[in-house]
Amino acid sequence: MPLNDDQNSDSDSSRLSESTVSSSDTEYSRQSFNSDSSSKPSSPLSSPPKVITFDELMAATRNLSNWTLAHEIAVNANFCIKHEDYPQNSFAGTVKQIVHKAFWDHLESELNEDPPEYKHAIKLFEEIKEILLSFLTPGANRIHNQICEVLDMDLIRQQAEHNAVDIPGLANYVINTMGKLCAPIRDNDIKQLKATDNIVELLRQIFRVLDLMKVDMANYTIKSLRPYLWHNLVDYERTKFQEILEETPSALNLTTEWIKESIEDELSSISDESSSCPGADSSSKPIISPTLVLNNGYLKLLQWDYCKTIPETLITDEVRLQELREKLNQLKVIACVSLITNNMVGAAIVDVPDFTDQLKRISLPLLEGMNKKNFDLKEALNAIGVQICSIVNKSLSERGLPTLNEEMQSNLMGQIAHVVEKNNPVCSLIDKRIQLFMRSLLALPSFQKCMPTMPGGLSVIQTEIEFLGSQYASIVNFNKKVYGPFYANILRKLLFPEAAMEETEAETSSN
Questions:
Q1: CA–CA gap between residue 482 and residue 487 (Å, rounded)
Q2: Contact residues for 473 (Cβ-Cβ < 8 A; gap 6+)
Q3: Residues 33, 491: contact at Cβ < 8 Å?
Q4: Cα(85)–Cα(233) distance, rounded to whole angstroms?
């Protein structure tokens, strides 16, 4: 990690605080959709003290100029770069191994000559020097000067001409310097370097550890940037998307269709309610809440077919939303199994200790990967049914009560297996209640931190669904912050076309 003169970076990194952005729900009033709102970026929510602009920061960190990568770093606290190598049995891995072995064998033969040939060894130390310097922060002058002094390549070349290069001494200095710069996780690697006697193998291992330190350095940089990204990401993403929209006017087509479908669903729902109320005035134009339309659109994402392209404004969160949908599907099945079991043999399990935990422990592994095309859900449900019958019978037997007969076991397992069927009433009920909970979550005011009331039948998965719900709400609220102006324009045109037309005509006449 970087050093500032005599300060170790470990203490620096420990003082880094991860910034969090409050997940507030952007409310859209009718007035805002009829006003002259634009999709141009607004000012950042907050501006932490810094000596460079955010655009300069993004440019300086190369790959972070990538919009999607910046979003991933900011919202995913677990995002990091991993050191990966080619598998040894792969073609690329074999080629790399052969080439590297040839290089290190050649270096060993050069150093064993009489007198030794130092040409390639000097090039290695020159590369090591550049890597070590790259780990330093601009203020680390003392250690920078020391590295340049000890690894003075002109002096080393002069020493080589007189056969006076102290290769082991230089390697020892490099190892000690690496020990000062590396993260604590590399301490064991440094100890192994110090215990290596063969100079060629030592140089090889030095480069291996330096590669690991590069990854550590990149992850340290990511961690350092995350607070700045959090503070600036809303404005940054909105600006970048505006640039894309100016270059590609069709960049909101899928988003428009997504919102249009949500409006149609809401109109259909209002129509159904009106038809069920004989006294309702069917001639009046229904009033639709823009916020409700948008929230209903977000709810659709929990049942989205991810073989279909997601709306453009949600691409950066597509993977997270897909994972949420998959986990919710697993929890839905568990809730269905629990409800069926309680309805059919509730009296038999009332005294079973931790039945809920046992149900989740046996179900989750069997439902792993249930969203894959080749997954056999019916087979998994049969296996779950068998184990539930075993748990129930064991409990009944321990209490001296008659166990479930074959007919009861068959009925229980059959009902559980029927969850896989389309329009299964139990599955439809649980799905509606999960949707109701998520809808209530999105409707909460931004300042309210407590969870909405959990609908009946979901108590078995309450902890898990509240956790997923908080993740889902966080994604939605952040998306509203970034793309709110774009959604406002689309909703204004779809919900209030007359006002949008008048505004367009006014703009045209003024031009």
A1: 10
A2: 23, 441, 442, 444
A3: yes
A4: 32
Question: Which amino acid is residue 11, in one-letter code?
Answer: S
Residue 141: closest CA among 340, 306, 2, 318: 2
Residue 84 burial (CB < 10 Å; 0-12/13-18/19+)? exposed
Q: pLDDT digits over 112-156, tens only?
A: 887 888 888 889 999 999 999 988 887 888 999 999 999 999 999
The answer, yes or no, to whether the previous bond of 115 is cis (omega within 30 of 0) is yes
Task: Give, in order, the Cα–Cα distances in Å from 460 to each of 193, 324, 339, 385, 505.
Answer: 53, 18, 9, 17, 57
Phi, psi of 7 (to 5 degrees): -95, 130
Q: Are 336 and 473 in contact, with CB atoms under 8 Å apart?
A: no
Interval 399-430: pLDDT, tens: 788 888 889 899 999 999 999 888 899 999 99
Taking the C-alpha atoms of residue 60 and residue 169, their distance in angstroms, rounded to an integer, is: 36
Burial class (CB in 10 A: 0-12, 13-18, 19+), 419: buried
Q: Which two tokens stand for residue 410?
A: 């068959």
Q: How far is Cα 108 from Cα 200, in angstroms, rounded to an integer?
A: 6
Place of tokens 């250690």: 143
What type of residue is 464?
E
Instruction: Measure the N-to-C terminal CA separation of the chain; round to a whole number of Å.
Output: 57
> What does the pLDDT look like over 361-377, one tens digit per residue?
999 999 988 888 889 99
Alpha-carbon torsion, ordered 337, 343, 344, 350, to 10 deg = 90
Cα separation, 471 vs 473, whole angstroms: 6
The answer to whether 332 and 427 are in contact (CB under 8 A) is: yes
As given in the structure block, the two tokens for residue 249 are 């006017």
CA-nearest of 325, 359, 327, 365 to 345 is 359
Q: pTM of the prediction?
A: 0.62
- Tell how many helices (H) and how many strands (E) occur in the chain: 20, 0
User: Tokens 């919009």 label which residue?
Assistant: 67
432, 425 Cβ separation under 8 angstroms? no
CA distance 359 to 47: 49
Closest CA to 220 of 179, 191, 181, 176: 181
Q: Are 308 and 333 in contact (CB under 8 A)?
A: no
Of 293, 306, 302, residue with least CA distance to 258: 293
